[in-house]
Design the sequence.
């Protein structure tokens, strides 16, 4: 962990920030977009599973590894950043409301649970629909059989852990360590999070930015990154597990599935489970 009061620390953190943003930008502009376009053309489940596996290991290695390195370096700035956030008028008002009425926290938790139940209910209500609305171009990502479904679980949980630690904790603390401004740190990290979903189209960028704002609000309001990790993982599980199971019944053997008038990705035939 770098000393938080050294005159050289912001310069060192600036170099780390440039390297991190450069790596993420290169992947988003070239590798992610190219691989996703190729993935969308795959009909073989073996090739799809190979790409799922590749993405999972790369996320754990590149994103997870860089996140751990950055957290070790900037951990001393995390409490400073959160302390500055607490001085914002909206946060002071929020804390005063919580202190004045214990029921408020219950309403907040209940509202979050209600929102989650509502999102899950929409999946069940739309199980007979011919097309499931999604945020961004992610239809090709949805598992198409039982063999692929396990990757839906793994990718969802991995994204919840790795992306929240990186974009809600490590990157904001790193930017704060360079500039000393919590609002700038949080804003830039949200923009980067949205931009990295450019391979999903404009809808994916905007939707991811909005989701990032919600997840950041969960983290700042609770002061605990575990809540943001949980919400993120549940949201992804809804997309990559619940929708394929409830709507497309991918957990059933091929012969037992209900006939559907539309497929997951523009009438792409279902793939073999072998």
Sequence:
């Amino acid at each position: 962990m770098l000393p938080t009061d050294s005159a050289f620390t912001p310069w060192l953190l600036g170099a780390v920030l440039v390297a991190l943003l450069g790596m993420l930008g290169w992947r988003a502009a070239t590798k992610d977009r190219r691989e996703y376009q190729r993935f969308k053309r795959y009909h073989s489940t073996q090739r799809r599973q190979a790409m799922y596996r590749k993405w999972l290991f790369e996320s754990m290695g590149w994103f997870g590894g860089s996140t751990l390195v950055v957290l070790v370096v900037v951990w001393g700035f995390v409490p400073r950043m959160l302390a500055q956030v607490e001085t914002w008028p909206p946060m002071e008002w929020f804390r005063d409301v919580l202190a004045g009425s214990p029921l408020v926290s219950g309403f907040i938790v209940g509202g979050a649970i209600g929102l989650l139940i509502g999102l899950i209910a929409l999946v069940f209500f739309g199980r007979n629909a011919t097309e499931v609305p999604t945020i961004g171009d992610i239809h090709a990502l949805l598992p198409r059989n039982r063999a692929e479904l396990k990757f839906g679980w793994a990718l969802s949980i991995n994204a919840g852990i790795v992306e929240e630690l990186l974009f809600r904790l490590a990157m904001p603390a790193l930017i704060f360590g360079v500039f000393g401004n919590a609002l700038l740190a949080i804003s830039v990290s949200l923009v980067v999070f949205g931009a990295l979903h450019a391979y999903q189209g404009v809808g994916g960028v905007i939707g991811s930015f909005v989701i990032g704002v919600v997840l950041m609000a969960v983290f700042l309001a609770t002061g605990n990154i575990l809540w943001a990790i949980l919400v993120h993982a549940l949201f992804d599980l809804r997309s990559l597990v619940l929708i394929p199971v409830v709507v497309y019944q991918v957990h059933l053997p091929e012969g037992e599935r209900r006939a559907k008038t539309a497929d997951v990705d523009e009438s792409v035939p279902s793939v073999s489970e072998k």
Q: What stands out?
A: The first helix runs from residue 9 to 40. Confidence is low (pLDDT under 50) at residues 259-270. Residues 115 and 268 are 32 Å apart (CA to CA).
